[in-house]
Amino acid sequence: MISVAAAIIVCDEERFLPGSLSSLLGKVDEVIIVDTGSVDDTLSIARTFGARIFHFEWNDDFAAARNRGLEEVTADWVLYIDADERLHTPGDRPVAEFLDPDAIAAFVRFKPKLNYTSYREPRLFRRDTRLRFSGRIHESILPAIDLIPERHSAAITRTAVGLDHLGYEGDQSHKAARNIPLLRQAVEDDPDRVYYWYHLAECLAAIGRVDEAIAIAFKGLLAAHQHPSEKQRANASMIFQFLSRTYMECGQDPSALLTEGLAAVPNDHALWFIAARARLDAGEFEAARRIAEDLLSVDTDALSDGLLAFDRRIFEEFASDLAGVAALRLGLFAEASRHFLNAAAAAPDNVSYRIKARAALLQQQKLKA
Questions:
Q1: Which terminus in the chain has less CB density within 10 A, N or C?
Q2: E runs forming strands in the chain
Q3: Over the stretch 187-216, which tens digit does the pLDDT of each residue have?
Q4: Dist CA 274 CA 25 (whole Å)
Q5: C-alpha span between 106 and 49 (Å, rounded)
């Protein structure tokens, strides 16, 4: 039987760590924790769960801290996980049951935020001294995997193992300020990696530096064009989402960005939702209605093996509201009321949807009268 180690780096994670370690019970064979300077109860919590603890002096390099943990792994495979993430497997079975012993690595179904769909993320890999992380932030094992000579015959398989990330809930402005210096260095070290440009743009926008964020985002699109791949296109699509939203917020026309982005990644549902909003703003109500109805028909359970995650509300609450507004503008009052009631069912605490449904129904009654 394959053995699996969970490797975690921590610093002052007393809030999240118990949940993460609890989720590992019975699913992995050992837990390696690398602490980078905790002063709260993180380490005592780790000891309670029987984790093996090691120390690393923080040097603004997440990959270096991750690699310190890999040096201590004795199991056959490694799962890298964070304190604010939760592991789940079908039937709560051990991770090993879902691994192909002939594979070099495996994807998990990673959910980046609560109420989001999941996407595939390479979080499992064989213990191998050649496999080490790179990247001072958003560290990745993939570059090392790609350099292994037998890579062409050793697959990265897909699994039903899942990870849910909780750390992006609430205000993230404090993280933006922390991440900007690391991301600036990252784009200098590896300017071809599109995700660095995307995250730097988002962080700059979060602290109000919108013009600089837009300029950075376009540099990311250039990197995607110069170094194309499936992953690069997916990350570029996130840049198109960011730019389109930002343009709309600034009163600029996002049409060219939307057209280019959807041509590159036609299954970016978040970009389609932004396109529907733009069509609605432009008075193209039928086009907005068609897009909204397409979003309502998406099978979200089938999205887990893609490279993009989506806010589930764009397939439920938000799409229903958008379809309702478009139908209302087209004079389809009964249809509008139905969509608003569907939005209300998806978000019971939002009373505005019921108010809009009632208003549309009154319009329908007046029409009949």
A1: C
A2: 4-10, 30-35, 52-55, 77-80, 85-88, 105-111, 119-126, 156-165
A3: 999 999 999 999 999 999 999 999 999 999
A4: 41
A5: 26
C-beta of residue 246 within 8 angstroms of C-beta of residue 259: no
Contact 193, 238 (CB under 8 A): no
DSSP secondary structure of 144-211: HHHHSGGGGGS-EEEEEEEEEE-TTSS--HHHHHHHHHHHHHHHHH-TT-HHHHHHHHHHHHHTT-HH
pLDDT tens figures, 258-316: 999 999 999 999 999 999 999 999 999 999 999 999 999 999 989 988 999 999 999 99
Please name which of 312, 272, 278 lies closest in space to residue 292, comparing C-alpha atoms. 272
CB 164 within 8 A of CB 88: yes
Token pair 């300017």 is found at 191
User: Packing angle between helix 317-329 and helix 351-368, nearest 10 degrees?
Assistant: 30
Is-contact 275 292, C-beta < 8 A? no
Helix (H) or strand (E) holding 346: helix 333-346
